[in-house]
Amino acid sequence: MQNSILKIEHLSHRYSSSWAIRDINIEIGKSGVTGLLGSNGAGKSTTMNIICGTLNQTEGNIFINGVDMRAEPQRAKTNIGFLPQTPPLYMDFTVDEYLGYCADLRHIPKASIKSAVKDAKERCGIDHFSNRLIKNLSGGYRQRVGIAQAIVHRPKLVVFDEPTNGLDPNQIIEVRALIKDIAKDRAVIFSSHVLSEVEVLCQDIMMIENGRIVFSDTMNAFNNYVQPHCMIVSMENFPSEDEILKINGITRVEVLTPRRARIYFNGDQEIAEKVVIASVQHDWRLREISLDKTSINEVFAQLSKNSTNSTI
Ligand SMILES: Nc1ncnc2c1ncn2[C@@H]1O[C@H](COP(=O)(O)OP(=O)(O)OP(=O)(O)O)[C@@H](O)[C@H]1O
């Protein structure tokens, strides 16, 4: 790939005797959000810690903007910002003290620290909390401070390890919006074990299971790959299963309540239209019809299962 910000070649890591990740190869471009999706223990944090230079790999190479992390770690790290799963915050520092300290650690020249901190605070919407002790901020604002430290040195690649974990629903929406904004002018890698979160945020998706990449492509390709094959239907006058099975393309009906069912179909994307037409013709009084996203989760489970069957 021309213009790649991150290139990973044959990356493997072993903790004492067992392999956590095995032969991972990844290349990502200079902008946009790439989602790293995997269940608990799949190997996301291990991969991210190695990318960010906080863990030394057992085998393989990492290049950040063409710079080899092993050969020139300091130079490679100038282009990386990292928000680990547990944000490295000092609770007794104010926001300004903490971000100033982080900017200094990142070798920002003394004369530029103030403006770098100001930019990061503005970007993350925390400039009104400059003098607040971090321990007195809410979870969502602490996470913003964590994000601000990850971008204070204006890196070309920012890595977020499960950044919405432990936040309430409103905070999750705000942090997602912030990540989207940050990705406008740099590359972002974002890990999660929640498929719906990766779907709304990322253009590209990599799935890791059992230490191996089991899927790596665009979000569009993933959605095409996992075409839904069932939908939820509610009707006032719910017909018999046999009546529904008469609609061409429907293969199975799973009754959920007397007026609601999950309907499986054979991939025919016009099936919803056919159900609507049949409902009008037979006066079934359709109240709800929606593609069932659980079928996507089933594919995720299937990909995970395939990788569990392979030996690491
Ligand atoms: N310090 C460690 N020592 C030994 N084994 C470890 C260590 N850290 C992680 N592991 C193991 O390596 C594997 C991958 O863990 P990792 O934390 O990378 O997964 P993850 O996808 O980030 O999971 P989670 O979503 O739970 O954080 C797991 O089997 C885990 O138990």
UniProtKB/TrEMBL annotation:
Protein family: Belongs to the ABC transporter superfamily.
Record's keyword terms, sorted: ATP-binding, Nucleotide-binding, Transport
Record protein name field: ABC transporter ATP-binding protein
A Pfam family matched in the record: ABC_tran
Gene Ontology terms, MF aspect: ATP binding
This protein's record includes keyword Lipoprotein: no
Coiled-coil ranges per UniProt: none
InterPro entries per the UniProt record, alphabetical: AAA+_ATPase, ABC_transporter-like_ATP-bd, P-loop_NTPase
PANTHER family, A to Z: ABC TRANSPORTER, ATP-BINDING PROTEIN
Family matches, as PROSITE patterns: ABC_TRANSPORTER_2 (PS50893)
Residue stretches making up the ABC transporter domain: 6-235
